[in-house]
Design goal:
about 375 residues; mainly alpha; 3-stranded antiparallel beta sheet; 16 helices; 3 strands; globular; binds acetyl coenzyme *A
């Protein structure tokens, strides 16, 4: 055997990167060296996206240009809307998002990923247009017309406006923006790796992002935020949480929103999200889901003691979105809307020294088998 086989490539570095870093033992996450807690307290999603993409906090003029560029590219072609109209309304919002993003590339056909200027505009378009696609899908599937973006509104405010036709409570926009910061980037996770594999073929960034969206959808990755809320609703009341957790664990099932390949302590994003839940509830009243979640965390803490399995980013995020009236199957698209900046940051980084991903395998099949004709099988 030429190499050790590591299932799931656990612990195998796939890139050298200066975009973000996780200390899974101490529960620390930094973007370009800055702790996410500090970014949530002081930055905005768009500024954080710039930091991830270009490696430094923007100057005032850089920030102005970036904000203007993103704001002016929020609109989507009517044909993208027409395309979404043709999709089955019961279909998953992540599938609609993936289809629309893949189709976007057909409208912006610059294929030369060595063109720095073109890459900048691709990044602008993708960061700007994903929220418009998500909001348009949320309405189109009920037969409602999409609401065009408003240039006078900030990134998060505008997203709520496109969903509901009214600007949100300022606190909601602030909390939502923090949620986007927390979901913007997370080292070499499954969807980022997927995007980088696609990018390594020098495919265009729309294809890169569409493939990352596909990987994010799964319940072991970003899709867990939906599963958590479904689980909390199924449990119903806090007093039923412990027996539910016992049932899951005794049946050797996974508790959704718990566990992480890297974190062996509570995910710092879950801690910040829990604080955001509390700020939201102080203003708008509590959520029964939160009471259930606290009990699930308590019970899991006792039953999984010493195993290093704690709440991850997906455990508390859905409770916030649910309280804001966002439908469950939009939770993972919201994750994608935020993570697109991280995916693109890795794409730009890899392009500087690209090498086609082409790993090896350990063949475990037979050799020299005879072909048996159909009539003799
Ligand atoms: N509930 C119960 N047990 C768990 C959980 C969990 N959520 N997560 C891990 N374990 C246990 C496993 O059963 C296994 O136990 P064993 O050694 O006795 O067999 C051990 O911990 C290791 O688990 P693996 O699944 O092998 O660890 P891995 O690093 O591959 O898993 C993963 C990470 C996929 C996230 C896992 O924790 C999981 O499935 N969690 C639930 C889904 C989830 O919340 N995903 C979102 C992750 S965050 C994100 O992607 C955005």
């Amino acid at each position: 055997m030429p190499h050790d086989f590591m299932p799931g490539l656990a612990g195998v570095p796939a890139a050298t990167s200066s975009i973000s870093d996780v200390d899974g033992q101490r529960g620390i996450l930094e973007y370009r060296g800055i702790r996410v807690e500090e970014l949530c307290a002081k930055s905005s999603y768009l500024e954080t996206a710039y930091l991830l993409l270009f490696g430094h906090l923007p100057t005032a003029s850089e920030y102005q240009r970036w904000t203007n560029d993103v704001t002016h590219h929020r609109r989507i072609k009517f044909r993208i809307i027409d395309l979404m109209k043709c999709l089955p309304e019961q279909g998953h919002a992540m599938d609609a998002l993936q289809a629309a993003v893949a189709a976007l590339g057909m409208f912006y056909p610059g294929r030369n990923v060595k063109d720095v200027e073109n890459n900048y505009w691709s990044a602008v378009r993708l960061v700007a247009k994903l929220p418009t696609i998500v909001a348009a899908w949320a309405r189109l599937r009920y037969g409602d017309a999409p609401i065009p973006p408003r240039d006078d509104l900030g990134f998060s405010e505008n997203f709520f406006y496109m969903l509901t036709e009214s600007a949100p409570h300022p606190l909601w926009a602030e909390i939502f923006d923090d949620c986007l910061i927390l979901h913007a980037e997370h080292t070499m996770n499954a969807s980022t790796f997927t995007g980088l594999v696609t990018a390594s073929t020098l495919a265009d960034p729309y294809t890169v992002v569409a493939s990352s969206i596909g990987a994010l959808k799964g319940p072991l990755h970003g899709g867990a935020n939906e599963e958590v809320v479904v689980m909390l609703k199924e449990i119903g009341t806090a007093d039923r949480a412990r027996s539910y957790v016992e049932g899951v664990l005794s049946n050797k099932r996974k508790l959704m929103g718990f566990g992480h390949r890297v974190y062996k302590v509570k995910d710092p994003r879950a801690t910040v999200l829990q604080g955001l839940c509390q700020s939201l509830f102080k203003e708008c009243g509590s959520s029964p889901l939160y009471e259930v979640a606290l009990e699930v965390e308590r019970a899991a803490g006792e039953l999984l003691k010493g195993k290093g399995i704690h709440p991850n980013v997906d455990f508390y995020s859905g409770i916030i979105y649910d309280k804001m009236g966002i439908e469950v199957d939009l939770f993972t698209p919201l994750f994608a809307m935020a993570r697109v900046s991280g995916w693109l940051a890795h794409w730009l980084e890899q392009l500087r020294e690209n090498k086609l991903f082409r790993p090896d395998q350990i063949y475990s099949g037979e050799h020299n088998r005879p072909y048996v004709p159909l009539t003799q099988r």
